[in-house]
Amino acid sequence: MKLLIDDADTTKIRRLWEYYPCDGVTTNPSILAKSGRKPYEVLLEIRSIIGAKADLHVQVLSRKSDDMVAEAHRIVETLGEATIVKIPATEEGLRAIRQLNAQGISVTATAIYTPMQAFLAGKAGADYAAPYVNRIDNLSGDGIQTAKEIHDMFQANGMKTQVLAASFKNARQVLELARHGIGGATVGTAVFEALLDNACVDHAVEAFMTDFEACHGTGKTMLDI
Ligand code: E4P
Question: Are residues 73 and 116 in the same domain?
Answer without folding.
Answer: yes
